[in-house]
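Page 42, continued from yesterday. The earlier attempt failed because a stray header line got pasted into the input along with the sequence. Redoing it now with the clean sequence only.
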Amino acid sequence: MTITLITGANKGIGFETARQLIALGHTVYLGARDAERGEKAAAELGARFVQLDVTDDASVSGALAVVDAAEGRLDVLVNNAGVLGEKAVDGPYALHVFDVNAVGLIRVTEAALPLLRKSSNPTVVTLSSSLGSFWAVTNPERPEFGLPLALYSASKAAATMLTVQYAKSEPGIRFNALEPGTTATDMTAAFGIGRPVEESAKTVVRLATLAADGPTGTFTDEHGTLSW
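This time it went through. Structure tokens are written below.
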């Protein structure tokens, strides 16, 4: 049985990823900040709910303690929680966006490492974004060129770099960053764009189910390696 933890999984790509992994036989711990929404989502899917706010150290350590007590290991971590950061830029709001999208990734990953090291096939998937790619946002032929989301782009660039650095420092664990594709979720509702969440979740599932000899330290989308 593969033990999987997904952050921010009560809706959107995280929720659909949980659904697809459960269908493949994973035991999924559905992490969500809001207990009521998280418990409802977990009940609908047949997942196990853990209260997990990526901006709160005690919440993160508590969630991993629950997994540890029940399973003794973690095979797959999906760093899915994130915010768009589309509001007016100022210092406090910038700290919030980076706290969720980059520092939160560190909090969860560091707390999960002891359990991942106990797995025979550990992998970490981080949902990043091509908006964090210098190559994409400076290329007039790419859609990212016309989307000036400074905080989101900068924090996702950090998320990709963190993924690469974790892959270097933890060679026994696969770490890969992913551009899941523009998806119709709450985050993109204001833009009126995006494909069905089921399609983007498939790209997450692909990386979450890699064999032990799979790649690490990559930044990809469904078509292959992305420049950044």
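Notes: The CA atoms of residues 128 and 178 lie 5 Å apart.
Reminder to self: strip header lines before submitting.
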